[in-house]
Amino acid sequence: MIEKKKSVGAIIIKNNKYLLQKRDTKKKIFFPGFWGVFGGSVEKYETEKKAILRELNEELSLKLKIKSKLFKLNFKSKFFKKERDRSYFQCEFVGQKTKIKLNEGQKFGYFKIEELKKLNIIPWDLQAIIYYDLFYVKKKKLIP
User: Residue 68 to residues 24, 31, 51, 108: CA-CA distances in angstroms?
Assistant: First the structure.
């Protein structure tokens, strides 16, 4: 059985805008300097749900809650040593406190869906947000 690297990402919306992080420019992270959703790696012996809540608290100094698990992407690339699984969760702020204290990344921003394609954004995070926007926000029906 091939060991996969697992990671999680949070789709967070406030006032019809998606919350994104501009990633650091460190050489050891994938897509340095790109925009992407908040999240990160799942630690050994950690569930995906615990991982996303931990990552959000570490990166934003805020408590968020999981509304739902949306889906999982699986991908391979010549740039990665291991096959990867990335699970996406719809997350919401808990209570009225939404002031972000950024602990990782260069900056954060809120973007309308039409603004996302103009950004230098991680491709699978863009794919996840577009999927979410079509099927959860705009309520498009998928006909097989």
Answer: 28, 26, 14, 23
- Taking the C-alpha atoms of residue 16 and residue 97, their distance in angstroms, rounded to an integer, is 18
Q: Where are the alpha helices (DSSP H) in 2-141?
A: 48-60, 113-116, 123-132
Q: How far apart are CA 93 and CA 105, in angstroms?
A: 20
Where along the chain do its domains lie?
A: 5-137
Q: Read off the pTM.
A: 0.90
What gap in Å lies between CA 137 and CA 131, rounded to an integer?
A: 9
Query: pLDDT, tens digit, for every residue of 67-94?
Result: 999 989 888 777 667 788 999 999 998 8
Q: What does the pLDDT read at residue 125?
A: 95
Q: With contact defined as beta carbons under 8 Å apart, do 116 and 16 qualify?
A: no
- Per CATH, which fold does 5-137 belong to? Nucleoside Triphosphate Pyrophosphohydrolase (3.90.79)
- Mean pLDDT computed over every residue of the chain: 89
